[in-house]
Amino acid sequence: MSNSTKVITGPNTIFSYLTVLEPKTPIGGGTPKYSVSLIIPKTDTATIQKIKDAIKAAYEEGESRLKGNGKTVPRLEDIRTPLRDGDRDRPDDPAYKNAYFVNASSANKPGIVGADLQEIIDPHELYSGIIGRASISFFAYNSNGNRGIGCGLNHLKKLKDGTPLGGFSRAEDDFAGLDDEEDFLA
User: Fold this and answer.
1) pLDDT digits (tens, 9 = 90+) for 156-172
2) Which of 5, 20, 101, 164, by CA, is between 20 and 30 Å from 129?
3) What number does CATH give the domain 3-166?
4) Which among 31, 33, 30 has a CA at the least distance from the CA of 103?
């Protein structure tokens, strides 16, 4: 795989459906995988363009795989690609409004670091909604008649806390601003 298929996302990428502490077995079985949905604001045109370029590079590198036993290589427009429009594909989820998203996964545990490049080992630091950068790679696949471009998860860098997604809240947020001297029994 060449560097033309690898992308480092911009610093405002939101990590959703974050499964990076333990791999999860996909629905229907298969190899357990680490995964994340990367929500990229539509205003981050540089990252979106890098992803489009990497998808095209993966397509070109994987033409023989995509062709398989067929006579021709399917057009890029006719196969599945991982870059999706949140406004169209997830209209009822406000986290995906005005954003694109890419689902990335890997059988190998991704490296996870903080802004200081130190490994994050506290599981409470990792939740859906944190903001950072992701290292991802694109590749062509042809499996059981399904052809397309996939997205592999390499590494994650948490830059800052974000709004927890999925209805969960952080303890710091729930108790912020309360007067702990108030007598509740009076």
Assistant:
1) 999 999 988 876 666 66
2) 5
3) 2.40.50.140
4) 33
